[in-house]
Write a structure and sequence with these properties.
It is built from four helices and six strands. By secondary structure, the chain is of the alpha+beta class. The chain folds into two domains: 34 residues, no CATH class; 95 residues, K homology (KH) domain (GMP Synthetase, Chain A, domain 3), CATH 3.30.300.20. A three-stranded antiparallel sheet has the order 1-2-3. Strand 4 and strand 5 form a beta hairpin.
């Protein structure tokens, strides 16, 4: 499988701006800029897109782990918080924190925690990122 996304940047770093698009056109010329990345201007940025990809990937990975364990999953809601940090070499992603709430039955909290760790480790986006990935995971169980 090959997946493509495209970015165009026009101008200098601080005065320029760009757009990002995906092959599927779900993202189509979405604007980004220095202000959306390093300041609080409204709009997207590469780190937000990585966070979205990681949240989506992890949610699917955890759902798969729960299913393999025989749990019935209603939903997995994941927020990924990416930390962009400046160090001596410049900016880098220093950490990703996954904040997870899952609603599932037929699974103990202990087994859920173990499966969440497995999903965190094996999610392809987790594997791709060379940063510390932390997580808090909560199980919301419905009465059987």
């Amino acid at each position: 499988m090959l997946r493509r996304a495209y970015a165009v940047w026009n101008g200098g770093l601080k005065s320029g701006s760009g757009t990002v698009s995906s092959e599927s056109m779900v993202l189509s010329e979405i604007p980004y800029s220095f202000g959306t990345r390093f300041e609080d201007d409204p709009g997207t940025n590469p780190e937000e897109l990585i966070a979205a990809a990681h949240a989506a990937c992890f949610s699917m990975a955890l759902s798969a782990e729960l299913e393999k364990a025989g749990a019935t999953t209603k939903n997995v809601i994941t927020a990924a918080i990416v930390t962009l940090q400046k160090d001596a070499q410049g900016f880098r992603l220093s950490e990703v924190h996954l904040d997870v709430i899952a609603e599932a039955t037929s699974i103990s909290p202990e087994k859920f925690a173990m499966l969440a760790e497995t999903a965190k480790t094996n999610c392809p986006i987790s594997k791709a990122l060379k940063v510390k990935v932390t997580m808090s995971a909560a199980l919301k169980q419905k009465a059987a």
